[in-house]
Structures are given as C-alpha cells and as structure tokens.
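Known limitations

Structure tokens in this collection are predictions and should be treated as such. Users comparing against experimental data should check residue numbering before alignment. To illustrate the layout, the record for SDR family oxidoreductase is reproduced below. The input appears on top and the generated tokens appear beneath it.
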Amino acid sequence: MTTTWFITGTSSGFGRTLTELLLERGDRVAATLRTPTRLDDLAARHGDRLWVRALDVTDTAQIREVVDAAFAELGRIDVVVSNAGSGVIGTAEELTDTHIDTLIATNLTGSIQLARAVVPHLRAQGGGRILQLSSMGGHMSFPGFSLYHATKWGIEGFYDAFAPEVEPFGIHTTLVEPGMIRTPFYDAVVHANPHPAYADNPAVIRGDIPLEQMAGDQTKVARAMIDLAQLPCPPRRRLLGSDAYARVHDALTQRLEQFESQRDIAMSTDADDYVATAAMA
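Generated tokens:
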C-alpha cells in the first residue's frame, strides 16, 4: 500500500535522502523547501508522486497555507516529518540577536507551528504519524552549541507534553534523536565571530568537525526513520547512532546520580501539611 509523506527541509541532508528513498520504494512525497527548483531532477523522474511547494518554516502563515494545500490536494497524509533545521556555533556571548531569533524561529517555533498545523488534518482522517527531528543534543550539550541545544531541549519538552494530547486521536509522535551524522548540515552551520576572551577556553569547540569523527550514516538513518514510521506502536523517542546512545546514556545517568544525592534536601522543602498523592509519589 502506498504511503504519503509530508517532509520539510528536503533540499539536502536527511530530507533529500529520505525523499529519494521514499520515491524509489513507490511512496508519494509532499516535499517542502525554500527553493523548489532544487528538486527538479526528482520531479522529472517521479512525476506526480512528488508534490513540491516552497516553504520557509519561519513563516507561520505559509506553514498553514502549505499544509492545508497538501492535505486538500493529496487527500491523505500518513506521515509528517518535521526535518527543517539549522545550527549556530558560538558561545552565548558571541551570538548576535539575529542568530538567536533566527535559530529559535527555525528549529523550535517552526516545528511547533508545523505540529499545530497538521493535527486538525490528522485528527479528521483518523490518525497518522509525526516524526520530529531532534538530536542527542536534546539530552546533553557541548559548550559552544548553547543556542542549538536550547532549541532541541525545547522541542523535546514540547513533544513530551504534546504526544499524550494527540495519541487518543490515533496520532503517534516520535522524536528522532541522531548523534553526529555525516550530512551537509555541518557545512551549513553558521559560525559566530569569536570573542578573544574565549580564545584559550578548552571547552569550546572551534573549527570544522572531520567526517571520520562522525559515527552515523545519512542513508542508514533515513532508512531507520522509514522503518520507524511503519511500526504499529512507535516509541516516543528513537536514538540513532552509537554515539547518541553512549552520550545520552551517560548524560542521563550522571543527572540521575546528581538528583539522587539531593533527595533529602528536596524533601526538606515540602510544606508541613503536604501529603504526596499516588500520582506524585
């Protein structure tokens, strides 16, 4: 049976690879990107199985317009992939106001608004899937990537609350959390102007990251996302990459150990007449 997908950010990276794989397997794809001509080769090869529209996810009105058009023209969309995103490297002090506003609008606000736009359609058709591209960086962090992590931790929190809201409608969501994958994403990352005060800071990452230091394979990640969308009961989160598993496992283990050491202090601040309910205990 043919599956219909809606994907943002299809010009390169995961979005492009995922689109290619889906078309090759006979699925239909509603592909969105800022410059539609970048998919002209796929349109010529796959005809009306590829539906292409211009979309800048920082434009909320355009998100709603394109989503409405896709459901109206394609009839049903089974899987929505919120993939568009970007990154900025630089310490918090080095970032500009524009860096902050643009990255939050792209990675966080745009993803939230896309989810809000598709829910009424998915609910009306009796369900569907949403795959939200997150990152291992939604659980841990690297100095010099504070803004990127802020957007990923933010989308993790949004989906943690959003998932149980929509599951009664047959809408299942998964946060896809890759590690460092060999994609063009890193070539497009913006580098803030370095501040001399941080020149000798050993914690801050500078320069390019060699591909051989990245564990993940772009095509394998895309195939794993396709498999994920076919599961009858998909997980709310999916780590992809050995580095993602190791780093997230270590970060959460360390965080839990810190919280355990603070248990007595936490309990000591309760009101004297407070009685924990079963849900809170």
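For this record: The chain has one domain: 4-244. Residues 176 and 225 are 8 Å apart (CA to CA). Please report discrepancies through the issue tracker.
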